[in-house]
């Protein structure tokens, strides 16, 4: 384990704020979120810091659950803007050469062929740097943008997601690695014996194939997943290459890490071939007091409580607009959304009292308590990250920014050199693909085995292949 090195992912939003909904108000934040150069600049900073990946979260609606309206999300800047990620990633590909590029695409509102082609294209154009964050979508606002009144139930979403991902992988494997011939003299462009229909016929999808994009440099783009429920953890164990977590404390993170690695092994996969990365924030200062003052500003100065509740309503699919800020969290409220109970328990433990109010929930959302927050000098931040990494809590971190581009610039210029000097993080890229950066094997191509039944029109099992070889 002496050579074990942490993975680092830069967590982004293609919009006006980071995960921290007050980020646009921070005095040194840039507000170039409608300019491609803004995203290219941030990606180049992370590539300078030899991050594995820059990854973009996404939602397919403005926050509109709170008060059954988008008005407060628009008024307070609670993520009303979400750009199309394909265009953003394309711009980043042209401005970088090594860092991985990733995006969220929903299995609830897209189709397998579309997603398979999008990420296969991105993987080719980036020379093997693409990653897909597989999400199931969770709220009614998104459903209503796609002609539905309500989102699918929890188990239905995962049933659909499992079949969706199986079909995508079949499409990625529909070209054999050596199918392209491109022999000008003979006039043979590609070998039709090595390009296969998949004839997927399942409960949710019917896909003939083949994909219109040859097999990619990585075989399969890297798969990301962040499910936290029991079903979500099982799905991630069977499929994901990177698993994002949201554990605020070290001991909870250690328990989650052990549980998830055991599930991966039980799924018949090598736990060392799956990275588990908690989302974290780093507030870095030239002195501890400077870092603490920055943190105080983030916690106290820039987030309107209604902005927090607008986002919390979206995450939990529950309208907090029905309550005053000083209403106590009731049993009826907890029963209305499965997510409220977990949030309530976390806030109750943090505050050390049972009478938790809606204002307390808003403050919890606003103050970045969903994951670890490393605050201090560069040495102190490096110490805290190393404690988690070497203490059995994670394989690295998904680093979220308090403000942009400053949070990433400070981390790359102040903390990264210390992690490198300690030998826990790379000093340079040694491979060319994202799988190289992560130390993950390239999936084998099983098309020769699958070709015969597929070409005879028989359905292929949706979960026949694993996401890593």
Low-confidence stretches: 449-469
Under CATH, the topology of the largest domain is which? Answer: TIM Barrel
- Shape type: globular
CATH H-level superfamily of the largest domain: Luciferase-like domain
Q: In percent terms, what proportion of residues is strand?
A: 5-15%
Strand order of the largest sheet: 1-2-3-4-9-10-11-13
Instruction: Output the number of helix runs.
Output: 17
* Largest sheet composition: 8 strands, parallel, barrel
Q: Nearest-angstrom radius of gyration?
A: 22 Å
Mean pLDDT across the residues is 89
H/E element string?
Answer: EHEHHEHEHHEEEEEHEHEHHHHHEHEHHH
Q: What is the rounded distance between the termini?
A: 23 Å
How many structural units, i.e. domains?
2
CATH architecture of the largest domain: Alpha-Beta Barrel
Helix-and-strand structural type: alpha/beta
What is the CATH C-level name of the largest domain?
Alpha Beta
Instruction: State the helicity in percent bands.
Output: 40-55%
Strand tally: 13
Q: What does this protein structure show overall?
A:
- The protein is α/β, with parallel strands linked by helices.
- It folds into 2 domains: 7-290 and 371-455, TIM Barrel; 304-366, no CATH class.
- It contains 17 helices and 13 strands.
- It has helices spanning 36-48, 71-76, 85-95, 112-125, 140-144, 154-172, 230-239, 250-266, 288-300, 305-316, 331-336, 338-351, 358-366, 378-390, 406-421, 434-438, 447-455; strands at 7-13, 53-57, 100-106, 130-135, 180-183, 188-190, 200-201, 206-207, 222-225, 242-245, 275-284, 373-376, 396-400.
- The strands form 3 sheets. It has an 8-stranded parallel beta barrel with strand order 1-2-3-4-9-10-11-13, surrounded by 8 helices.
- Strand 5 (180-183) and strand 6 form a beta hairpin.
- Helix 4 (112-125) crosses helix 6 (154-172) and helix 7 (230-239) crosses helix 8.
- 49% of the residues are buried.
- The model is unreliable at 449-469 (pLDDT under 50).
């Amino acid at each position: 384990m002496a050579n074990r090195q942490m993975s680092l992912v830069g967590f982004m939003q293609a919009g006006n704020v980071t995960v921290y909904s007050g980020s646009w108000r921070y005095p040194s934040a840039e507000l170039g979120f409608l300019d491609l150069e803004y995203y290219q600049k941030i990606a180049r900073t992370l590539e300078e810091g030899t991050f594995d990946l820059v990854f973009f979260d996404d939602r397919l609606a403005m926050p509109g659950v709170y008060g059954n309206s988008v008005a407060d999300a628009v008024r307070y800047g609670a993520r009303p803007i979400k750009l199309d990620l394909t265009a953003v990633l394309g711009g980043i590909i042209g401005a970088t050469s090594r860092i991985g590029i990733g995006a969220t695409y929903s299995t609830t509102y897209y189709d397998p062929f579309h997603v398979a082609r999008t990420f296969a294209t991105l993987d080719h154009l980036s020379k093997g740097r693409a990653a897909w964050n597989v999400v199931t979508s969770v709220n009614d606002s998104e459903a209503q943008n796609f002609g539905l009144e309500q989102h699918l139930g929890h188990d239905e979403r995962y049933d659909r997601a499992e079949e969706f991902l199986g079909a995508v992988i079949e499409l990625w494997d529909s070209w054999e690695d050596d199918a392209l011939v491109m022999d000008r003299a003979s006039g043979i462009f590609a070998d039709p014996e090595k390009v296969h229909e998949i004839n997927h016929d399942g409960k949710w999808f019917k896909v003939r194939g083949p994909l219109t994009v040859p097999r990619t440099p990585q075989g399969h783009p890297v798969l990301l997943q962040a499910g936290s429920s029991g079903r979500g953890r099982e799905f991630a164990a069977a499929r994901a290459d990177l698993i994002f977590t949201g554990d605020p404390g070290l001991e909870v993170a250690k328990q989650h890490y052990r549980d998830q690695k055991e599930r991966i092994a039980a799924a018949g996969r090598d736990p060392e071939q799956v990275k588990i990365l908690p989302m974290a924030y780093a507030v870095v200062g030239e002195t501890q007091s400077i870092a603490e003052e920055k943190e105080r500003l983030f916690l106290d100065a820039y987030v309107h409580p209604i902005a927090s509740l607008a986002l919390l309503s979206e995450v939990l699919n529950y309208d907090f607009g029905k309550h005053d800020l000083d209403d106590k969290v009731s049993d009826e409220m907890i029963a209305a959304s499965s997510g409220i109970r977990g949030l309530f328990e976390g806030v109750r433990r943090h505050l050390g009292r049972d009478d938790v109010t809606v204002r307390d929930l808003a403050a919890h959302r606003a103050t970045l308590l969903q994951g670890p927050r490393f605050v201090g000098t560069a040495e102190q931040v490096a110490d805290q990250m190393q404690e988690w990494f070497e203490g059995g809590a994670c394989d690295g971190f998904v680093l979220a920014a308090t403000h942009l581009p400053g949070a990433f610039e400070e981390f790359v210029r102040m903390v990264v050199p210390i992690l490198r000097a300690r030998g826990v993080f790379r000093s340079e890229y040694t491979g060319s693909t994202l799988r190289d950066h992560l130390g993950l094997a390239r999936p084998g191509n099983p098309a020769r085995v699958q070709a015969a039944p597929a070409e005879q029109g028989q359905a292929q099992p949706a979960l026949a292949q694993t996401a890593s070889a």
